[in-house]
Amino acid sequence: MLVILTAFVTFMITTFSVCSYIEKNPKEINSLDVVNVGSNSSLQKYLKNIKSTIEKYYLWNDDIDEDKLETGAICGYVEALGDKYTEYIPAEQMEEYTEDITGNFVGVGVYMIADEDLGRIIVYYPIPESPAARAGIKSGDMIKSVDGVEYTTEQFDVIADNLKGEEGTTVNIVIDRNGEELSFDIVREKINTNPISIKLLDNKIGYLNLPSFDEETALDFKEKVDELKSQGAKSLIIDLRNNGGGIVNEATEIADFMLNRGNTIISTVDNKGERQVTISEKDPIITMPVVVLVNENSASSSEILACSLQENERAKIVGEKTYGKGIIQTLLSLSDGSGLKITTEEYYTPKGSKIHEVGIKPDEEVKLPESVKSVYSVKEEEDTQLKKAIEILK
Predict the structure, then answer these.
(1) Do both 233 and 258 map to the same domain?
(2) Which of 23, 63, 220, 289 is deepest in the core (most CB within 10 A)?
């Protein structure tokens, strides 16, 4: 299913079947010169022939937008690779695109999920203290319309764009909550995305929910763990369920907090077959027992963190087999200001096992009961996966 984590803040572009998450730190955007096609190129000749034919016969010749046609040609060329994770980003979208990746937005502050089965866009997670949370938007709310316009999963990018706007402006959101239609007028604000939520459970177990790996998620994770420690936490549950991924460096840094110096976190292989190993560079600063929760929507960076802790015997994994997105995308900036997000590497577990299209099998496979209507909104009393994690730590 299509699971695109985003914020009404805007969309963080994940593609998880689907997801289009940039898996490299977006601060490390490389430079790539535009290559000129030679005059004898068959492609160039063919396009020139198509162009002249359009100019000669097209009915609305005066309305032709050359820039739009060129962009469309480039997008089609890249799309023909058949890789849903590789895409061309026009110059006018690059600034917005990189802002989306880092998690710095202006909006109302919720993550959304496009559910293909329902054909609707669902609120996954309102960011704490955000305008959406203050207005009363809740997880599981089905979005019916934005400013009077209805959207389906096919218009996910459009709804994300329309939810954005200038700071201080108002957007109307109509949602369906268990058959009841509710309308919210929400004022857009600058959102400091802080998706990690925490609570102290019984038996001094600290619980952290990580919906995505954004810029500075690792720092936020450390601060939240310290907060739980101050409350008396003696063990941790890290909830990566429905986490579609994000910035790889943030996941590896969190792993580094818990692994021994020299432990392998992941290894990556590029198109030349060259392997690069990422190892833990510091002594662990988090030493308490850990259980990680995963499900079929845990992908990419989530899988990196989960497998690194699992295969180094640092944590037990509980839940269901993960999604299986074991490839990394790098965002390259072209000399004209446009960009190319391209699949550049495949990554493997510390012991060298394949993840892509395979997934990670939990140590304790636990399914949610049939009474659970949505994996995105599970009541604690029905959460058999969380109960199993608590049982292990007890």
Answers:
(1) yes
(2) 23
Q: Does residue 210 share a domain with residue 165?
A: no
Q: Phi/psi of residue 75, each to 5°?
A: -60, -40
With H, G, I as helix, E, B as strand and everything else as coil, classify residue 215.
Answer: coil
What whole-number distance in Å separates Cα of residue 144 and Cα of residue 172? 11
Euclidean distance between CA atoms 78 and 81, whole angstroms: 6
pLDDT digits 0-9 by tens, 5-23: 333 222 322 222 223 334 4
The mean predicted confidence, pLDDT, of the chain is 87
- Same domain assignment for residues 281 and 335: yes
**How does DSSP assign 74-130, residue by residue?**
HHHHHHTT--TT-EEE-HHHHHHHHHHHHTEEEE--EEEEEETTTTEEEEEEEPTTS
- Do 203 and 170 fall within a single domain? no
Please give the pLDDT value at position 192: 63
Asked if pLDDT for residue 36 goes beyond 50, the answer is no
Alpha helices (runs of H) in the chain, residue ranges in sequence order: 42-57, 66-79, 91-102, 131-135, 156-163, 217-230, 248-258, 301-311, 384-393
Asked if residues 16 and 120 have their Cβ atoms less than 8 Å apart, the reply is: no
Percentage of residues of the chain with pLDDT beyond 70: 87
Q: Tell me the residue range of the domain where 325 lies.
A: 197-393
- CA 269, CA 284: separation in Å to the nearest integer? 27
Instruction: Tell me which H or E stretch contains 59.
Output: none
The per-residue pLDDT for range 338-358, each reduced to its tens digit, is 999 999 999 999 999 999 999
| Residues 213 and 323 grouped into a single domain | yes
Helix axes 217-230, 248-258, angle to 10 degrees: 30
Residues 347, 349: Cα–Cα separation, whole Å: 7
Q: Residue 143: inside a domain, yes or no?
A: yes
CATH number of the domain to which 149 belongs: 2.30.42.10
Number of other CB atoms surrounding residue 289 within 10 Å = 14
Co-location of 294 and 185 in the same domain: no
Bridge partners of residue 10, in order along the sequence: 7
Domain boundary at 161, 192, 223, which? 192
What are 318's two structure tokens?
């509980």
Total-model pTM = 0.73
